[in-house]
Design a protein that fits this description.
It is built from 4 helices and 9 strands. By secondary structure, the protein is an alpha+beta fold. Strands 1, 2, 3, 4, 5, 6, 7, 8 and 9 form a 9-stranded antiparallel β-sheet that branches. The chain binds flavin mononucleotide (FMN).
Length: 187
């Protein structure tokens, strides 16, 4: 069923509810947004990530990654980034402008690592090879002995602004907003 929310307040609330749900629902299309960053050479890089946490009260999104990945180097150089979400069910696109802080040490990361290391995802963060390292053959990374040190990094994205687009046969709608303003835009 396609839902139609009329007021900015209702649309904003529905967006944050949907983002929250995506963290817990593996089949929710907002669980795997595309994250775009500024490349070191001045270009742009995009990749799919998993949405791991949402704090709607603080307007923050959380993603886990390998501290040695290219995106971390890019975010260290420029913390501005954009998440793009698309929901086929709602026919809603979100383009979320964020500022990302990177946590690689400290209590929050270690507490999280205690949980992640029990899961299959642990292997993503203990490979001795940094993501993007050149391989001689494709089995090389899986045959290497894994070290005990982890490279888990937590990306905390503070939302600056959301560009919301609804596709509808009744007429598309678009708006730009954050906690303090709302502006309708031509789609
Ligand atoms: C469905 C899906 C989910 C992914 N989730 C993550 C993720 O949560 N964190 C992550 O670092 N990479 C994730 N990846 C891999 C990234 O898309 C990317 O290939 C990798 O992080 C290297 O990106 P970089 O070289 O730009 O840093 C995911 C890929 C797919 C296809």
């Amino acid at each position: 069923m396609e839902l139609s929310f009329q007021t900015p307040l209702e649309i904003r609330s529905q967006i944050w509810k949907g983002l929250n749900r995506a963290v817990h629902d593996k089949h929710h299309s907002w669980r795997t947004p595309v994250l775009s960053t500024l490349a070191i050479d001045g270009g742009v890089n995009s990749r799919t990530v998993v949405l791991r946490g949402v704090d709607d009260a603080a307007s923050k999104l959380t993603v886990y990654t390998d501290a040695r990945s290219l995106k971390v180097a890019e975010l260290n150089a420029n913390s501005k980034a954009v998440f793009v979400f698309w929901s086929q069910r709602l026919h809603w696109q979100l383009r979320v402008k964020v500022n990302i802080s990177i946590l690689t040490t400290g209590q929050q990361v270690e507490t999280l690592w205690e949980r992640v290391k029990q899961s299959a995802a642990a292997f993503d963060y203990i490979s001795p090879l940094a993501p993007g390292s050149k391989l001689i053959n494709t089995t090389e990374s899986s045959t290497l002995i894994k070290s005990n040190d982890h490279h888990l990094a937590v990306l905390i994205a503070s939302v600056d602004e959301i560009d919301w687009l609804e596709l509808s046969i009744k007429g598309h709608r678009r708006a730009r907003f954050n906690d303090t303003f709302w502006e309708w835009l031509a789609p």
